[in-house]
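We were asked to recover a plausible sequence for a given structure. The inputs and outputs are reproduced exactly as logged, with field labels preserved.

PROBLEM: sequence recovery
POSITIONS: 254
GIVEN STRUCTURE:
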């Protein structure tokens, strides 16, 4: 049972708020993760205590919205920047509770930014505006499928660790669809990958009792064609399966 974080999005002619997650995350859980997808509504802080004992993994999704700067003491967003306070109030405590419990966690794009903020880090809001940095945001002059699956830049991987082992190389090409990125790295996070401009692209939680990774790119878009992307989800799935086996043993003992 793999929880998938939802955003609050307006749908239909009445712009009714809906709790939503992209089909890409559902399909990747059904596919290489090998689990049952469970959509987690942006229902606020109380969700963590009720849902975590029923989950075997937590997948934090990407989103167009940005983490509210008040959570990390940053300046207000530029006018028009999408925010999702309900998601923030749900995912930040959920992340801290999941890590404390040792529940396997994989954080993608906004999810990695949430992971950094939840553990005490801060964010750059528009990397492309900073001196010497690349534009990591979605190009507007390319067709959507290419934007999602096309390789935008390389990521240099830390010399030791499972991510480098999964890649089988010092560098891997990745897609790139984000404005925000890690500014001050949370004390418990350890970087596992960097873009050419120094932007941190992958992290793991130091001393975590279970699998706890974040990646700034979107492996859910190309796992059917890209072996490295698929292996990331398979590693997460193996951790979730091991957690599920232990959970069922505990329940049987009770």
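RECOVERED SEQUENCE:
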């Amino acid at each position: 049972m793999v929880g998938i974080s939802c955003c609050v999005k307006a749908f239909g002619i009445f712009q009714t708020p809906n709790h939503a997650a992209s089909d890409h995350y559902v399909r990747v859980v059904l596919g290489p993760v090998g689990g049952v997808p469970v959509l987690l509504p942006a229902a606020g802080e109380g969700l963590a205590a009720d849902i975590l004992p029923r989950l075997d993994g937590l997948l934090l999704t990407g989103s167009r919205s940005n983490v509210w700067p008040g959570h990390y003491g940053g300046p207000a967003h530029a006018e028009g920047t999408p925010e999702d306070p309900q998601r923030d109030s749900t995912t930040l405590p959920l992340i801290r509770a999941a890590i404390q419990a040792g529940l396997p966690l994989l954080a993608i794009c906004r999810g990695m930014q949430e992971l950094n903020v939840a553990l005490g880090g801060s964010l750059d809001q528009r990397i492309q505006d900073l001196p010497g940095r690349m534009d990591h945001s979605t190009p507007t002059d390319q067709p959507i499928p290419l934007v999602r699956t096309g390789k935008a830049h390389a990521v240099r991987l830390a010399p030791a660790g499972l991510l480098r082992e999964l890649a089988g190389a010092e560098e891997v090409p990745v897609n790139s669809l984000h404005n925000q990125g890690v500014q001050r790295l949370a004390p418990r996070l350890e970087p596992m990958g960097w873009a050419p401009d120094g932007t941190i692209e992958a992290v793991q939680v130091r001393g975590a009792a279970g699998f706890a990774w974040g990646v700034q790119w979107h492996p859910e878009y190309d796992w059917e064609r890209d072996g490295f992307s698929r292996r990331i989800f398979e590693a997460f799935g193996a951790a979730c399966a091991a957690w599920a086996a232990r959970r069922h043993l505990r329940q049987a003992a009770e």
